[in-house]
Amino acid sequence: MKLYSTNNKDLRVSFQDAVFHSLPQDKGLYMPEQIPTLDPAFIRNIQQYSLQEIAFHVAHAVIGDAIPAVDLKVIIADAINFDAPVKFLDAEQAVLELFHGPSYAFKDFGARFMSRVMGYFSKQGDQLLDVLVATSGDTGGAVALGFLGVEGTRVTILYPKGKVSKVQEEQLTTNGQNIRALEVDGTFDDCQALVKRAFNDEELNSSLRLTSANSINIARLIPQTFYYFWAYAQLKSQGADQVVFTVPSGNFGNIGAGLLAYKMGLPVKHFVAGTNVNDTVPRFLQDGQYVPKPSVQTLANAMDVGDPSNWVRIQDLFDQDVDAIRAVVSSYTYNDEETKQGMEELFERYHYVACPHTAIAYLAAKQYRKEHDGNYASVFLSTAHPCKFPDAISAEAFQAIQLPEGASALAEKERLVTEIEVDYEAFKAYLLANK
Ligand SMILES: *Cc1c(COP(=O)(O)O)cnc(C)c1O
């Protein structure tokens, strides 16, 4: 497998290079040189396969010989070791639950696969791989639990003090082993700025082997295609083969993976993106002008993104043709008040407790159905377990949450955390002193 940069299609790098250096120097994004078309017989019979078998088939088609089949199988067995069930709420409306992994969010798919691929490519005797990651909550937990115990790697997570939920903080700070948590007395943007500066610091890079666990890493995108195929397989075995997926979107990596699956031959009728008031993409789909804005804080804070980093990938998939994108993707935007109403409606109508991101997808799926009636299964993606967002959820719904196994044990564990100020020199000194 070779990859090009969206800014320079003549540039070609190996999968391994793209994994360790998330971003090309030209600031584009890596894309597979060739998007494989899956064997139609595989799609036709897809309901016969398990999630892991599907994941292997898809990954092998994309990655080719960059990882030998036997090794890829081991990576997938280890990384994709939890389910993503489709559950019908009524005859027409289903939800694809992506929160049954260790951090209770869909980011587990990307983070677990990427961590094992990085571990695989890190040869014995290589210098320790230092992963730096800034998080507003969900990314950090998925990366921490994804890399936990992966040999040859160490993770340093920066998170903003007081701005992550209890479960999120526990997932960041109770790991030990090869995971370190830094609580920064500042905002998420401050955390991100510290990490960015570290990546550009030559002195630091000469003594540490730094890499990012950024959401734009190609090894996070590929495994996110798996569950679209798996959802389709589940629907097909129930007799439905027309599907519209609705995806709560921030950086547009999740829906980008869905569109990649579509380009590989997954029969999807349409995609719908639901966003919070950070509506750069919905505005683009309306008027064809891509005008990023500074992000605004919302209840669905994992989608507070004013300039979605994966959008250029989607444009690349559709050869920069806005009308071609519009033919496959619709989008709708919701404010916090509407998001709350969406959560309430899900609870009252279906006794389903959803996180705010998931509620936005529900609202968008409903709106699309209203405008496009027809005989199809509407599936919205549930990206996180509601227990991660207690402040956004009504007391009544919160009472009804069934905590995932392990969530209460987390609270008992010792917290291991180092507090730092927003001070680059102090951060750098910490990294150098704790090599
Ligand atoms: C990260 C995240 C999203 C947004 O996904 P993108 O791939 O950035 O569009 C949505 N919901 C939850 C719960 C998340 O953690």
UniProtKB/TrEMBL annotation:
<keyword id="KW-0456">Lyase</keyword>
<dbReference type="InterPro" id="IPR029144">
    <property type="entry name" value="Thr_synth_N"/>
</dbReference>
<keyword id="KW-0791">Threonine biosynthesis</keyword>
<feature type="domain" description="Tryptophan synthase beta chain-like PALP">
    <location>
        <begin position="96"/>
        <end position="381"/>
    </location>
</feature>
<dbReference type="Pfam" id="PF14821">
    <property type="entry name" value="Thr_synth_N"/>
</dbReference>
<keyword id="KW-0028">Amino-acid biosynthesis</keyword>
<dbReference type="InterPro" id="IPR004450">
    <property type="entry name" value="Thr_synthase-like"/>
</dbReference>
<protein>
    <recommendedName>
        <fullName>Threonine synthase</fullName>
        <ecNumber>4.2.3.1</ecNumber>
    </recommendedName>
</protein>
<dbReference type="GO" id="GO:0004795">
    <property type="term" value="F:threonine synthase activity"/>
</dbReference>
<dbReference type="InterPro" id="IPR036052">
    <property type="entry name" value="TrpB-like_PALP_sf"/>
</dbReference>
<feature type="domain" description="Threonine synthase N-terminal">
    <location>
        <begin position="4"/>
        <end position="79"/>
    </location>
</feature>
<dbReference type="InterPro" id="IPR001926">
    <property type="entry name" value="TrpB-like_PALP"/>
</dbReference>
<dbReference type="InterPro" id="IPR037158">
    <property type="entry name" value="Thr_synth_N_sf"/>
</dbReference>
<dbReference type="InterPro" id="IPR051166">
    <property type="entry name" value="Threonine_Synthase"/>
</dbReference>
<keyword id="KW-0663">Pyridoxal phosphate</keyword>
<comment type="similarity">
    <text>Belongs to the threonine synthase family.</text>
</comment>
<dbReference type="InterPro" id="IPR000634">
    <property type="entry name" value="Ser/Thr_deHydtase_PyrdxlP-BS"/>
</dbReference>
<comment type="pathway">
    <text>Amino-acid biosynthesis; L-threonine biosynthesis; L-threonine from L-aspartate: step 5/5.</text>
</comment>
<dbReference type="Pfam" id="PF00291">
    <property type="entry name" value="PALP"/>
</dbReference>
